[in-house]
Each structure stands twice: as structure tokens, then as C-alpha cells.
Design goal:
Elements: E1 11-15, E2 19-22, E3 27-29, E4 47-54, E5 59-65, E6 75-81, H1 94-107, E7 110-115, H2 126-139, H3 149-154, E8 155-165, H4 167-181, E9 191-197, H5 208-213, E10 240-246, H6 252-264, E11 270-276, H7 283-286, H8 291-305
Parallel strand pairs: 6-7, 6-8, 8-9, 9-10, 10-11
Antiparallel strand pairs: 1-2, 2-3, 4-5, 5-7
Length: 307
């Protein structure tokens, strides 16, 4: 966490409880920045490693490989994009590192967690571009000749799901939109499922955070933020969509709005909406051992397995 500002360095913008920006341009993040290195989890046997994809942008991914009993067995590929208001969080944050270990183990899937650039230092659409670059990099392994052996040997590129929570769910949606509209991108990869956990969208009113971190956006008219503004929403090229909401979450209506937008725009795939009662935004990350959090994890894992 950054130190306090010096005298005269007043706050020009703040989005609580995530960050503050000072006149000097300094950004103070208000969440602890604890990070865990890649490892082998002693309970599940899930291994992880970090791969730098682009030295210029510092785009990287953390890959999680569950215990495999057969070296040639192909496993579902999960591409995961973490949340954090586009401005905080990391693949190495303890809550995400442990969540991906649990998901990889429960779903018996290779998981690729994307370390995208954060706003406000890197305004949107940087995070969208980084996520897409990570997907294209992963897809380059579909012929078994990429640079990362875990993907070459174990990832099934005909069985790919893209999942994210909160702002990461928004980024995940945009990855699938871009894949659906691209003739060449993500070649060799079949994205068969999109999982949105407590997603952030702009459905019916402006958002002060977006105004600040995405100055080139047209707001409610921007299809990256508002699914109602996407005339091609019904043409998403994935067979299944899972939307998870939480009863006490302020973003709950946005999750339901996305479900309605998909249906009303003629999406022909399977769409499932599940709402957890009595819980708030991303409750499962902060309290992963509760019955409801375990049920959410199992729901996601089943979705990843059954593409």
C-alpha cells in the first residue's frame, strides 16, 4: 500500500475502497498488495508457473496445472480474468491464487489467469487489449507447438471457457465478443463457454469510475460496457453462458440485465442464471470455505467441465 501523500499533494479523484489519485499523478491503492509466488499446492497437487508474454507491456499469465495421472491426457482450458474495478488485484493476490488452485483442482482443468495492466495508470481499453493478447497467445499453442509445454501437452483447445468476476467478468465478455467477431484471432481455439460471476456492466446510468478510467468511452452507448448497445450480442459464438449473481450485491441488477439482453437479442445458446441468497459481491473469494462459496465453486467447475 502506498504511503500517504506529502503536503500540497491533494486528492483529485478517489474510488473507495480501491484507490486515490493525487495532483502529482501518484496513485494510492487502498488494498494490501500481498502476493504469492507460483508453487505446488500440497493439498491438491496443483502446480503453477508465471509466463511473461509481452516484455513491453509486462503482460503475463499464471498457469495452473492439476495433478495429471496420464501425461498425454487433454484437459479443459479455463481462461480466468480477475476482478477489482479494473484497478486492483493480481493473479498473485492470495484470494485469486487460491481460487484458481481450487478451480483447477475441482474442474480438473488447465487454468490460465491473466495479469492485465491496471487503471488508472493504464486506462481502459488496456485491460481489454491485454486479455485478448493473452487469449491469442494461448491459442498459438493449439497446434501443440507453442512455447509453453503445459498448454501443448495438456490443454484441450476445443474445450475452452472464459470466466471472470466483477470487472473481470466484463473483460471476459469482451474477449468472447472479440473472438466472435474475429476471422483470424484465437485461431485454433473454440471458446465454448462464458462464465460471468457478479459481473460489472453499465445498464442504465453513467458510472463515475468509468468516466475517469475510460475517457475514450462513449459511456452507455459503448457496447463494451453496456450489452444493450451491442447489436451483435445475439451472435456470440459460444454455446453456453453462466451468469452468477448475489442477492445483496449492488451489481445484481446488472447481472439480470445482461441475462435479459442476451435473451432479447436472440442468443441461441444455453443461458443459465443463478443467484445466491443472503450474500454480497464476490463473497466466495473472501470466505471460500462456507457452504455457499463451496457450492459456487462446484457450479463453476461443473460449467467448465461440461462445455
Amino acid at each position: 500500500m502506498d504511503s500517504e501523500a506529502g503536503s500540497g499533494d491533494g486528492v483529485v479523484f478517489e474510488f473507495l475502497p480501491a484507490f486515490r489519485v493525487f495532483k502529482s499523478g501518484r496513485v494510492q491503492r487502498l488494498f494490501p498488495d500481498d502476493r504469492l509466488p507460483p508453487s505446488t499446492d500440497p493439498l491438491t497437487g496443483v502446480q503453477s508457473k508465471d509466463i511473461l508474454i509481452d516484455p513491453q507491456t509486462q503482460l503475463s499469465v499464471r498457469i495452473f496445472l492439476p495433478h495429471v495421472s496420464h501425461s498425454t491426457k487433454k484437459l479443459p482450458l479455463l481462461i480466468y480474468i480477475h476482478g477489482g474495478a479494473f484497478s486492483i488485484g493480481s493473479v498473485a493476490t492470495p484470494i485469486y491464487h487460491h481460487h484458481l488452485i481450487s478451480l483447477a483442482a475441482e474442474a480438473n482443468a488447465v487454468a490460465l489467469s491473466v495479469e492485465y495492466r491496471l487503471a488508472p495508470e493504464h486506462p481502459l481499453p488496456a485491460a481489454y487489449d491485454d486479455a485478448w493478447a493473452a487469449v491469442e497467445w494461448a491459442a498459438s499453442h493449439s497446434n501443440g507447438k507453442g512455447e509453453e509445454i503445459w498448454l501443448n501437452q495438456h490443454a484441450d483447445f476445443n474445450h475452452v471457457s472464459v470466466v471472470g468476476d466483477s470487472a473481470g467478468a466484463n473483460i471476459s465478455y469482451n474477449v468472447v465478443v472479440r473472438a466472435s467477431e474475429s476471422n483470424n484471432g484465437a485461431k485454433g481455439m473454440k471458446i465454448s463457454g462464458l462464465g460471468l460471476v457478479h459481473p460489472f456492466f453499465m445498464i442504465d446510468k453513467p458510472d463515475k469510475l468509468i468516466d475517469y478510467i475510460f475517457p475514450t468511452s462513449s459511456g452507455l452507448d459503448d457496447p463494451r460496457l453496456n450489452p444493450w448497445a451491442n447489436p451483435k450480442l445475439g451472435k456470440l459464438r459460444c454455446g453456453r453462458v453462466l451468469i452468477l449473481a448475489a442477492d445483496l450485491d449492488l451489481l445484481k441488477d446488472r447481472a439480470h440485465g445482461f441475462y435479459a439482453a442476451l435473451r432479447e437479442n436472440g442468443f441461441e445458446g444455453s443461458v443459465e442464471m443463478v443467484e445466491t441468497q443472503g450474500e454480497d459481491h464476490v463473497f466466495h473469494l473472501f470466505n471460500p470455505n462456507t457452504d455457499k462459496a463451496v457450492a459456487l465453486l462446484k457450479k463453476l467447475a461443473s460449467f467448465i467441465q461440461s462445455m
